[in-house]
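S1.2 Input.
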Amino acid sequence: MIASTIFDEIVEFIARKSPEDVIAFQPSEQSSQRYEMLVHKEKSEGLTDNEKKELENFEVLEHLMRRAKAKAHLILAA
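S1.3 Output.
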């Protein structure tokens, strides 16, 4: 699948730049609070279309960073 391949390429690119920095990365407090607010609002009252897109973007980026961190651990272990 092409999307998976490009996703893997981006993960590899990020992880190799500085594996230690990738592993240490944490989103800002502001971003974390926004994400938590969107999740809560989704469960309690629903989201606007723009908020749904924003939440989807957060989730895609979180997945990407989890994979990049896993790859960075493998790079450092090699």
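S1.4 Remarks. The longest helix spans residues 49-77.
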